[in-house]
Backbone:
């Protein structure tokens, strides 16, 4: 049985990876993204900034946060890179330079949203990155409504496999975080503690 265990683990991983790859969120049709308080764009992949700026220009929201920006990058560089007027960056775009990863993106985005009183947000990232991002953002912002705006692309298999592994570990982490809550809640109910 122990000899077969690695085979079963590999088979389970392949099945899970196949399902993950085939069920990535679809693109949102143009004009279908709901009007929101703010837009959050996660850096790290092609097409994300352009998609977020297109939503901003379409007045889906009045303000946008780009989370995870390299500390040495200036707004004018992003403006030139995307072919966007600097005036749009000056008036309506904030840069988060503190987030080192997706969990950090969620934390910093929550601070930004709370400071502005935003409750409805559009999250822009790559389609393969969206499932894990939504878990982390919904954990960081339980009171917010988050609309996914995935950016489609032809991603290398290695990108997908790496993200799938992170997604699995995030799901496992979420399961362990929830597990202790149930017995504690039952104990409180049984003893009448509040």
Residues:
């Amino acid at each position: 049985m122990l000899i077969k265990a690695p085979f079963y683990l590999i088979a389970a991983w392949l099945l899970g990876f196949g399902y993950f790859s085939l069920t990535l969120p679809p693109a949102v049709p143009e004009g279908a993204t709901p009007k929101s308080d703010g837009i959050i764009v996660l850096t790290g992949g092609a097409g994300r900034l352009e998609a977020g700026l297109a939503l901003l220009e379409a007045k889906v929201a009045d303000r946008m946060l780009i989370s995870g920006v390299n500390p040495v990058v200036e707004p004018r560089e992003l403006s030139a890179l995307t072919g966007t007027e600097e005036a749009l960056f000056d008036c309506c775009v904030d840069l988060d330079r503190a987030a080192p990863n997706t969990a950090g993106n969620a934390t910093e985005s929550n601070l930004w949203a709370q400071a502005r009183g935003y409750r409805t947000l559009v999250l822009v990232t790559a389609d393969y990155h969206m499932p894990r991002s939504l878990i982390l953002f919904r954990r960081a912002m339980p009171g917010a409504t988050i609309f996914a705006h995935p950016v489609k692309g032809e991603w290398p298999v290695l990108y997908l496999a790496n993200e799938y592994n992170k997604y699995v570990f995030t799901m496992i982490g979420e399961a362990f975080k929830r597990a202790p809550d149930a017995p504690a809640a039952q104990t409180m109910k049984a003893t009448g503690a509040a």
